[in-house]
Write a structure and sequence with these properties.
heterodimer, A: about 290 residues, six-stranded antiparallel barrel, globular, B: about 170 residues, mainly alpha, 7 helices, about 0% strand
Chain lengths: ~290, ~170
Amino acid sequence: MPHFFSNKRLIILLVSIIILVALIGFSMKKRESLTLPEQFLKDTAGLTQTIFYKPANSIAGFFENLAEMKQLYKENQMLKARLDEYAKLYVQYEEVKKTNKTLKAQLDKEEDLTDFKVREATVIGRSPDQWNQFIYINKGEKDGIKPKMAVISPQGFIGKVTNVSLFQSTVQLISDNDRTNRFSAIVQGEKNIFGTIEGYDPKRQALLFKKIPVDAKIKKGQKVITSGLGDVFPPNLLIGEVIEIEPDEVGLTQTAYLKPSADLYDLSHVMVLEREMPAVGESLKEKEEE
Amino acid sequence: MKKILLPFLIYLAFISESSLMQALLPHENSMEWQFIPRFSMIMILFIAMFVNSTYGLVYGLGFGLLTDLLYTDIIGVYLFSMAATAYVTSVISRYLFGNLIVALLLSIVGVSILEFTVYGLNSLIGISNQMIDMFLYKRLLPTLILNGFFALLIYYPYVKQLNLLKDTIKEN
C-alpha cells in the first residue's frame, strides 16, 4: 500500500497522536465545572434523550412484565408474610421516633448530621461503552443540583453527581473505575470497621472494599454503609453486602468483595441527596469571612 | 434539507445508543455479556466505504468528539479512535468491491478496530481493568454480533441514500 504510509501521512499520524496525548492529559485533571459549550452540548443531548427514553422504557417494561407474571403468585405469598412483620416494626418505629424527638428537644439540638433534602430524578440515558459507568438524569442546576451530591436508588447508594449543566446532570456510579471515584465506608457491626470503596471487579461482579485493618474480623453477609466522614455524603446509606474477604497483596490490609445492594444495571428512578447541615470546613470559612 | 438529513440520522443513532443501554439491554448486561451498541460508528463506516475517505474522517472526528464530551470523562480517546477507524476502513475498501457481504465484513472489522483501540487506550489510562480473555469473549464477540445485525438492518435504505449523496458530490 504505497498511499498508506507516505511521508505526509506519517507526519499527520504522529501529530495527531501528540494532540491525543495532550487532550487526555488536559482532561484527566478533575474539573469542578463544565465550560459553556460543553454545557450546551450536554443540554441538547439531554433534551433528545428525554424524547427517546419514554418509548424505549415502555417497550422494555412490557417484556419485563411478561417475565414477572410467572413469579407473581410466589411473590404475593412471601409479601403477605412480610406484611405482618411490617406492622410490628412500624409500631416500634413510631415509638422510637417519638422518644428520639423528645430527647432531641431536651438537648436543644435541631440539626442533625443525618438530615438531608431529597430530590427525585429520572434516568434518561447511560454511557453506552461499559468502561465508563455514567448515567444521565433529567434534573440539573435549575433544580438545585450541585456536583458531589450523593445519589441513591430505593435499594441503596449508587454514586455521586459529577457534572451539572442547566437541565441535566451526570452521575458517576460506584462501579466506575476512575481513580478519583473513592468512598469511605464502614462495615456495620458491634464495632465500626472503616475502609474505602475503590472500584469494581468485573470478573466477580463485585465492588472492591479495600484498606480494612488486617486484624478486623468480618463475616460474609455483613452490611456495608457510607460513613459520612468525607463531609460530602450523608452517613448510613446502604452500599452492599460482603461476599468474600481476602488479604491484600502485601498482607498489611484486607480486601472485601461487596455485592452492591442496588442493581446498578437496572436504574430508572433515583434520588439525589443534599446534606442540610453545612460541612465543618464550610462553616469555618463563613466565620472567617464574617 | 438534504444536507442536514445525514448528520441528523447519525445523531439519532448516537443518542439511541445511550437510550438502548439504559432501557433495553440492562438485563443482558448484568448477565456478564456486554452488548455495546456502536450504531453511529457503523453509519460512519458506511460513509467511509461508499462516499469517500474525507467525509468518513470528518464525521469520525465530529462524532468522536461528541462521544468523548457526552459519554465519557476524558476527551481524546474516541476522537482519535473513531477518526482512525473510519480512515483505515476507507483505505481497505478501495481494494474491495462494495457489496453487502463486503460491507458487513468491513463494518465488523471496523468495530473490532475501534473496540481494540479504545480498550488499549483505556487500559493505558487505567479506566479499564478487564483481562484480555474476558474482553475477547464477554465483550467483543457479543458486540460484534449486535452491530453486525444493525449493519444488516440499515444496509439497503442507507446505502441508497449514500449513493445519492455521492452523485451530488460528483456533480459539483
